[in-house]
Design brief:
The chain has two domains: 288 residues, no CATH class; 117 residues, Recoverin, domain 1. The protein contains 22 helices and 19 strands. Strands 9, 10, 11, 12, 13, 15, 16 and 19 form an eight-stranded antiparallel sheet that branches. α10 runs parallel beside α18 and α18 runs parallel beside α22. It is globular, with a radius of gyration of 27 Å. It starts with a helix and ends with a helix. The structure holds adenosine-5'-diphosphate (ADP). Adenosine-5'-diphosphate binds next to β6, β15 and β16.
Length: 572
């Protein structure tokens, strides 16, 4: 239907049958890209599956899906707090962008003790805390307290675990209002790690002028909580068609404002990029455990990518603080408006549409399966051109292994067997007319600055190696013993009996507070704790991150030697 050559190129196919509330924005994106949508699914496999909730919305065995297995679990308030805390233990300065947090109910005594200690050492410290139920969203069940004794430990909270967190009392205000930022981040790939950030996001405003928390105003949600879903019910909520006024604005409009006030906007962006990369580095180890469990290496399965919503609060001094990460950021491009008392209607929201359609469309452009094939072809042509021996035998060369992988898209082109035609097709952009990408790569672009933080990733690689049976997420006692033995960690000071005790102690404690009781055994976080314990024992006087790095090097060295030995024996 597009005529001529372009019509012969297969269009990218997208299954949108599970897109839920992101459907509207997805449809617009697909129209702009001229891709083929399958709103009711398709008998044949699609190139891309767009899920509204999770990886498991559909059973898929090929293509790409816009969710990672385990992401929803990973960004729950408790899991995220734990993952960030592990990183704070290793790198306290690098991870000071997340408020000090405690997990309830199990850390309640610790919370009480630590607050008392801090108050004793600094009597002028008058903190406020925010209690957030685990798994909650849209401000649901959140309340502020001045003292640990105000926690509602009775009733629902005990059955509903929560995180209690230091409340950031001095946020940056615009028009005297507190606001937060929703930034969209694309996790394009886990291995190798690839992260993109959208150049624009949304700012969500409170609807009551902000005052620092006092006993009198603690309960005023329109003053303290920036959730759109709460503030929309305030009489003061301002719907605006302009991106720089109203209760929901673009982040770029805020940056313009700040820049005109003389703020260092470049530094702010670089701090935000650093916060995003560090947060994802905290999440990747466990995500990899989920990934190998759902998509075991060597088995056919889809590859994954995911758009995440980062909620960030700017402090008065412009330091960005992470509030939370959303696995399913709202992609709705309309909002509810109360036309007359009790009568609601969905009306288009230009601000949402501008930001969200660009994020979805450009995510798809980055994931375009044909683009990858074209890139492969182009690379291949370059290498052919440089190779004198095959210059005159192009057709044969194109049947080589490298191009076999891209043969599907280029079959018709290969038949012609002419290099100039291939070159033409490979370089021809199907994206003419689209704006430049709104997503900016930050990793691996800045990998050099952050790779030293990826210690837990390497611990997770050890953990996964010893998981044994594919498809599990927990390590059994035999696996743990094999890990100790293969890495040569047991000696006269640390017998195998002590190894078993360490395993039992740590595993029992983690399982007693764990949310996931489906599998027995040691979860990754318990393994990380055991690993830190072993590192502290072996390298006593070093700072924790050096102890851990040294033990990882030690284990990796012994495992490489073992692999080498096995290889030699195998050959023999
Ligand atoms: P939910 O998932 O329910 O939206 P959040 O963690 O995003 O939970 O918190 C809801 C709102 O509470 C945030 O949008 C923010 O305005 C406010 N908030 C959360 N944590 C803090 C904090 N530590 N300091 C100040 N304000 C916070």
């Amino acid at each position: 239907e597009e005529g001529g050559r372009a019509a012969r190129r297969p269009r990218v196919t997208v299954d949108s049958s599970k897109a839920k509330t992101s459907l509207e924005a997805l449809k617009i994106s697909l129209r702009q890209l001229r891709w083929r949508e399958f709103p009711f699914g398709r008998r044949l496999p699609c190139d891309i599956y767009w899920h509204g909730v999770s990886f498991h919305d559909n059973d898929i065995f090929s293509g790409q899906v816009n969710k990672f297995p385990g992401m929803t679990e990973m960004v729950r308030k408790i899991t995220l707090s734990r993952a960030v805390r592990t990183m704070q233990d290793l790198f306290p300065l690098e991870y000071n962008f997340y408020p000090r947090s405690w997990i309830l109910p199990e850390e309640f005594p610790l919370f009480v003790a630590e607050v008392r200690m801090m108050k004793d050492s600094d009597p002028s410290w008058k903190p406020t805390f925010i209690v957030k139920p685990d798994g909650g969203c849209q401000g649901d069940g959140i309340y502020l307290i001045k003292d640990p004794s105000d926690i509602r430990l009775t009733g629902s909270i005990q059955s509903r675990p929560a995180v209690v967190q230091e409340y950031i009392c001095k946020p940056l205000l615009v028009d005297k209002l507190k606001f937060d930022i929703r930034l969209y981040v694309l996790l394009k790939s886990l291995e190798p790690l690839e992260i993109y950030i959208a150049k624009d996001g949304l700012s969500r405003f409170c609807t009551e002028p902000y005052q620092e928390p006092t006993l009198k105003n603690l309960h005023q949600v329109f003053m303290h909580l920036t959730n759109y879903s709460l503030n929309i019910h305030s009489g003061n909520f301002i719907h605006s068609d302009s991106v720089n006024t109203g209760s929901k604005r673009t982040f770029s409009s805020i940056l313009c404002r700040l820049s005109s006030r003389g703020a260092d906007v470049k530094k702010l962006w670089s701090d935000i990029i650093s916060l995003v990369i560090k947060t994802i580095i905290a999440l990747t180890p466990e995500l990899k455990v989920y990934y190998q469990s759902d998509i075991p290496a060597g088995k056919p399965g889809p590859t994954c990518f995911q758009i995440l919503g980062f909620d960030i609060l700017l402090m008065k001094n412009l330091k960005p603080m992470l509030l939370e990460v959303n696995a399913n950021p709202s992609m709705r491009i309309e909002h509810e408006q109360e036309l007359s008392p009790g009568v609601f209607e969905n009306v288009p929201s230009p601000v949402d549409e501008e930001v969200k359609v660009a994020v979805i469309r450009d995510t798809l452009r980055l994931m375009d399966p044909h683009k990858k094939k074209r890139k492969d072809i182009q690379q291949h042509i370059e290498s052919c051109k440089n190779n004198v021996n095959i210059r005159y035998n192009y057709f044969m060369c194109c049947r080589c292994q490298t191009l076999e992988q891209v043969s599907e898209a280029s079959e018709e082109l290969l038949d012609a067997g002419r290099a100039d035609r291939l070159e033409y097709e490979a370089s021809r952009s199907p994206e003419a007319g689209l704006p430049s990408l709104c997503l900016k790569q930050v990793f691996p672009k800045y990998a050099k600055q952050f790779n030293y933080l990826r210690l837990v990733d390497r611990v997770a690689a050890l953990f996964i190696r010893f998981l044994g049976v594919k498809g599990t997420t927990k390590l059994g006692p035999t696996g743990f013993r094999t890990f100790i033995r293969n890495c040569k960690l047991s000696n006269s000071n640390f017998s195998m009996a002590s190894v078993d005790i360490l395993y039992i102690d740590i595993t029992r404690r983690w399982n007693s507070m764990g949310i996931d009781h489906k599998e027995s055994g040691m979860c990754l976080q318990a393994f990380v704790e055991a690993f830190f314990c072993l590192a502290q024992k072996k390298y006593k006087s070093l700072p924790l991150h050096e102890q851990v790095a040294s033990l990882i090097d030690f284990c990796e060295y012994h495992l490489a030697a073992l692999d080498e030995k096995r290889l030699v024996c195998g050959r023999g």
